[in-house]
């Protein structure tokens, strides 16, 4: 998995895999930069990382060697990108399944795509609920931040991060503003806008487009 969104949308499938193979060891391959996001997932026994910042061929060989040492009975590629398909092939897994991202109809949800793939090996997944696990250190950081900003008043908080790694994944600022206004009114919630230096302009655009104060 190579993004926060990918990890969250993959959790229903990982949960289904864990439930189906309750007595087996489940290992996840993910990008090194997201290790903190997956380290608390209770359905995993092991996490193997690859460093996207390293030299691609060298890193691919390094990770492939680690995978082959595990002698996996089953390798499931939920990502469907060139590198994951390559690593799946190089893993030496006794059985491998996966699909290209363009193999499904364009209007199907990613979770449903994953469930369809799992059904080919007899895993019937129905629970589409999403989960998100954070480390104790991150929970403490969030509490301290809210306390510093005087936001520990019991009111529901909804955070919005309008940025994305790639421009084509970014939603228009006015759409974020519309959703923020709607959620704020419907749930009587305080809307928090997040972003780093790269998102400063976009965050300001969302704030200026909102009818309510974030």
UniProtKB/TrEMBL annotation:
Entry keyword Glycosyltransferase: yes
Keyword Transferase: yes
GO cellular component, one term: cytosol
InterPro entries: Glyco_trans_9, LPS_LOS_Heptosyltrfase
Any one Gene Ontology molecular-function term assigned to this protein's record: ADP-heptose-lipopolysaccharide heptosyltransferase activity
Entry keyword set: Glycosyltransferase, Transferase
BP GO terms, sorted: lipopolysaccharide core region biosynthetic process
Matching PANTHER family: LIPOPOLYSACCHARIDE 1,2-N-ACETYLGLUCOSAMINETRANSFERASE-RELATED, TETRAACYLDISACCHARIDE 4'-KINASE-RELATED
Protein's name according to its UniProt entry: Lipopolysaccharide heptosyltransferase family protein
Source organism (scientific name): marine metagenome
UniProt lineage: unclassified sequences, metagenomes, ecological metagenomes
């Amino acid at each position: 998995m190579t993004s926060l969104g990918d990890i969250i949308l993959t959790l229903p499938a990982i949960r289904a895999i864990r439930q189906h193979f309750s007595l087996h060891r489940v290992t996840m391959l993910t990008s090194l930069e997201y290790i903190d996001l997956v380290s608390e997932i209770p359905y995993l026994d092991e996490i193997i990382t690859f460093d996207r910042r390293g030299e691609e061929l060298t890193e691919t060989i390094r990770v492939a060697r680690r995978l082959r040492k595990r002698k996996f009975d089953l390798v499931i590629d939920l990502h469907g990108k060139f590198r994951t398909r390559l690593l799946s092939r190089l893993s030496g897994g006794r059985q491998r399944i996966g699909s290209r991202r363009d193999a499904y109809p364009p209007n199907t949800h990613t979770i449903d795509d994953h469930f369809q793939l799992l059904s080919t090996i007899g895993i019937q997944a129905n629970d589409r609920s999403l989960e998100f696990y954070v480390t104790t250190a991150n929970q403490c950081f969030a509490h301290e931040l809210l306390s510093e900003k005087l936001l520990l008043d019991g009111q529901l908080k909804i955070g919005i991060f309008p940025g994305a790694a790639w421009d084509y994944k970014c939603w228009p600022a006015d759409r974020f503003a519309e959703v923020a206004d709607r959620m704020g009114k419907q749930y009587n919630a305080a809307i928090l806008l997040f972003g780093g230096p790269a998102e400063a302009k976009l965050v300001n655009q969302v704030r200026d487009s909102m009818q309510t104060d974030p």
